[in-house]
TrEMBL record:
This is Galactokinase. CDD domains: NTP_transferase_WcbM_like. It comes from the Bacteria. Keywords: Kinase, Transferase. Residues 7-228 form the Nucleotidyl transferase domain. GO terms for molecular function: kinase activity. It comes from Thalassotalea euphylliae.
Length: 231
């Protein structure tokens, strides 16, 4: 049974690349086979055993607040709004005051990779890690950048996106944090987890690798693919 009962979902991105499809709402509220994509993520978390979710909002946060009541869920929801774009790291930092537990999940609000969170949590605990990152293998890692691991499953490097099409292990946008590691966040309130934080805490971060496709709704093509495959 899942012991980690809280999660932060990052729902504040601008969604510039998806504007041709969705221009009146943030990406996580994009129509996903008749309901918001956020509703799909909340169902997944609820079935996994998560009981409380903090939505870290920014771009068009009012839209989320106005439409949240239409999402059917038993999860307790709290919205934290940023006054300016803070990046993925700043968005987590901005939501920390609402986190009540010593461990919590963080999810990107515009992607999904199927994972048994119980198993991820067990791996996290057995590894004595401060952060566990969900990883998956993709045929073309050029759009993501890749991650390297050592023999113990510890992260050793982040590699930037490459124009060369090749297989690779990629960050799937789901993390399990121990709250004390957030004391290592940069002083600046605006920063990226991927570029400004994770590379500095590699020795405290392990990967949990699954054999599941990574779906995102960041572009019109990937959005249509996610609707088709996950519908």
């Amino acid at each position: 049974m899942l012991k980690t009962k809280e999660a932060i979902i990052l729902v504040g991105g601008l969604g510039t690349r998806l504007s041709a499809v969705v221009n009146d709402r943030p990406k996580p509220m994009a129509d996903f086979n008749g309901r918001p994509f956020l509703s799909f993520l909340l169902d997944y978390l609820q079935k996994s055993g998560v009981e409380r979710v903090i939505l870290s909002a920014g771009y068009k946060a009012d839209y989320i607040k106005c439409h949240l009541g239409l999402i059917e869920t038993n999860i307790m929801l709290t919205i934290v709004e940023e006054n300016e774009p803070l990046g993925t790291g700043g968005a987590v930092k901005n939501a920390l005051a609402q986190v009540q537990s010593e461990s919590f999940f963080v999810l990107n609000g515009d992607s999904f990779c199927q994972c048994d969170l119980d198993l991820m949590e067990h791996h996290h605990q057995m590894s004595n890690a401060q952060i566990t990152m969900l990883l998956t293998q993709v045929e073309d890692a050029s759009a993501f950048g890749t991650v390297s691991l050592n023999g113990q499953g510890q992260l050793t490097a982040f590699e930037e996106k490459s124009p060369v099409k090749r297989q690779g292990l990629v960050n799937s946008g789901v993390y399990l944090f121990e709250k004390p590691i957030t004391a290592s966040f940069p002083r600046d309130n605006q920063f990226s987890l991927e570029h400004d934080f994770f590379p500095k805490v590699l020795s405290k971060t392990v990967g949990f690798t699954v054999n599941s496709p990574l779906y995102d709704i960041g572009t019109p093509a990937s959005y249509r693919n996610a609707c088709l495959k996950l519908g």
